[in-house]
Specification:
The complex is a heterodimer.
Chain A: E1 5-7, E2 10-14, E3 19-24, E4 30-38, E5 45-50, E6 56-59, E7 62-67, E8 72-77, E9 86-94, E10 102-103, E11 107-112
Parallel strand pairs in A: 2-11
Antiparallel strand pairs in A: 1-3, 3-8, 4-5, 4-9, 6-7, 7-8, 9-10, 9-11
Chain B: E1 4-7, E2 10-13, E3 19-25, E4 31-37, E5 43-51, E6 54-57, E7 64-66, E8 76-78, E9 87-94, E10 104-105, E11 109-113
Parallel strand pairs in B: 2-11
Antiparallel strand pairs in B: 1-3, 3-8, 4-5, 4-9, 5-6, 7-8, 9-10, 9-11
Classes of the chains: A mainly beta, B mainly beta.
């Protein structure tokens, strides 16, 4: 069983502030790292898929970085808005022909007006 | 496209009852997955399928069965429901799990076993 850890578990941020959180994954046999955004009462939606060490992806105010050598990815949100409130999941895919993703438990982000 | 659809949205079962959770996708995806999500836990893979007629166990398959007779449908069967199976169940699909291929999730089925 692969170990994918996310921290913190939950986070309260004031509207307008910027924030970031972490996903840690095995540094060996890396294939891809996915980020999903999961709003309450909805289903997870894909944000980014990252494959290369040093990758940086951006979507509006949200960006992510990837370090495969040390096994971590950061998700950044700039100028948080109430609609950013959600659980952010990362999912690791190993090489060697594995078909499935291993999900972390998520970081639950609450933006306070 | 409707994407990934799941029925029912909610269900309450008594211990020992059986039921089938339905999942259908209209994106012609090869791969389909069933996850369960418990409070404070991540998504745990129950079963997955790489194509019609082929299924494989995930991390937590005990107490469940699946079948994949068509590309579109991937039902999950609970034969003897137990309280430990109280959870939210998500079905997902992807065209092919290459590195850049994301999974598309259904809206979930909330199951309570009493």
């Amino acid at each position: 069983i692969l170990n994918v850890e996310q921290s913190p578990q939950s986070l309260h941020v004031q509207e307008g502030d910027s924030t970031n959180f972490t996903c840690s994954f095995p540094s060996s046999n890396f294939y891809a790292l996915h980020w999903y955004r999961w709003e309450t009462a909805k289903s997870p939606e894909a944000l980014f898929v990252m494959t290369l060490n040093g990758d940086e992806k951006k979507k509006g105010r949200i960006s992510a970085t990837l370090n495969t050598k040390e096994g971590y990815s950061y998700l950044y949100i700039k100028g948080s808005q109430p609609e950013d409130s959600a659980t952010y999941l990362c999912a690791f895919k190993s090489g060697g022909g594995a078909d499935e993703l291993t999900f972390g438990k998520g970081t639950h982000l609450i933006i306070q007006p | 496209n409707a994407g990934v659809t799941q029925t029912p949205k909610f269900r309450i079962l008594k211990i020992g009852q059986s039921m089938t959770l339905q999942c259908t996708q209209d994106m012609n995806h090869n791969y389909m997955y069933w996850y369960r999500q418990d409070p404070g836990m991540g998504l745990k893979l129950i079963y997955y399928s790489v194509g019609a007629g082929i299924t494989d166990k995930g991390e937590v398959p005990n107490g469940y069965n699946v079948s994949r007779s068509t590309t579109e449908d991937f039902p999950l069967r609970l034969e003897l429901a137990a309280p430990s199976q109280t959870s939210v169940y998500f079905c997902a699909s992807s065209y092919y799990p290459q590195s850049t291929d994301t999974q598309y999730f259904g809206p979930g089925t909330r199951l309570t076993v009493l």
